[in-house]
Write a structure and sequence with these properties.
alpha+beta; DNA Binding (I), subunit A; 2 domains; 9 helices; binds zinc ion
Length: 282
């Protein structure tokens, strides 16, 4: 047993020494060799210089920010009435000019990219260097040059997309359902055209207007509903009578159909009967 441990220790020491005195210098030698070759290629490669010059000429468009949308409803009925496309339309009301600009920039990228790829392919000066290769290994230089070259080829954005994800979560926070949609430039442009088609401030497309109204109406969260009831003392603001909560409804003072918004100031408590009587009058 004692001998076994001694043998083991000796073998262990020998291996450690071999690693230290042969392995380490060998490793350092390879690292230095690689660094020397990389440095030479970076300074002297004509192909790389041509590519850098090409990249400078092609100014591709960069999308300025992420337009993805997400929202969590605490009311399953409203969650059910709003589709991801409705939610997108609603938001495009406010940012469609920026979104249009991004889509145009990205489609220009697609056109320019074809030309760019042709020009990249035409660069054929691999292995031609501005100074003497000297002791360096030409095969190794070429390998490094190809790798660096490929890493410097530009990859511009060619698809513009907006992801919309909607969820329904109970007031406790437990997520019960999710739905989502991905919309790319073509469809978004169609929606923007429909939004831009207005007559004296009104959207001409009925579908667009309905989508906006559905999202606006669904903005009444349960949290908001309860705090309005509380604010109004559980009384109908038309007949003044007090009701149990299940007989109360939230009313938009200026109706959504007439451009009213879901804000605390524009909401009031009504009983079912009065709400029916009021309808869309304003
Ligand atoms: Zn009433």
């Amino acid at each position: 047993m004692g001998i076994d441990i001694k043998v083991f220790l000796i073998v262990f020491l020998v291996i450690t020494c071999l690693c230290l005195f042969i392995g380490l210098p060998l490793l350092l030698f390879f690292i230095k060799k690689r660094n020397d070759h990389v440095a030479f290629v970076k300074v002297n490669s004509i192909a790389l210089k041509n590519l850098v010059e090409l990249n400078r000429r092609y100014k591709f468009y960069e999308v300025s920010k992420n337009y993805d949308l997400s929202h969590t409803y605490d009311n399953d009925v409203f969650y059910g009435t709003v589709s991801p496309e409705d939610y997108l339309i609603y938001n495009l009301q406010f940012n469609r000019y920026n979104v249009s600009k991004e889509i145009l920039g990205v489609s220009n990228n697609v056109i320019k990219l074809t030309e760019y790829k042709k020009e990249v392919k035409a660069i054929s000066s691999f292995g031609k260097y501005e100074s003497e290769v000297g002791k360096l290994n030409i095969e190794y230089l070429l390998k490094i040059e190809r790798k660096l070259f490929n890493s410097k080829i530009l990859k511009p954005t060619t698809v513009f997309a907006i992801n919309v994800s909607l969820a329904y979560a109970k007031m406790s926070g437990e997520v019960c359902s999710k739905k989502s949609g991905v919309f790319t430039g073509g469809r978004i442009n169609q929606l923007i055209d429909m939004l831009n088609n207005q007559d004296r401030g009104f959207y001409c497309d009925r579908g667009i207007w309905d989508a906006i109204c559905r999202v606006e109406r669904a903005k009444v969260s349960n949290k908001m509903r309860f705090s309005i009831y509380q604010r109004d003392g559980y009384r109908c603001r038309m007949c003044g009578r007090r009701f149990k909560m299940e007989n109360l409804e939230i009313d938009h003072i200026k109706p959504i159909a007439k451009g009213g918004k879901t804000t605390y100031d524009n909401l009031q408590t009504l009983c079912r009967r009065c709400n029916k009587l009021k309808g869309d009058s304003y």
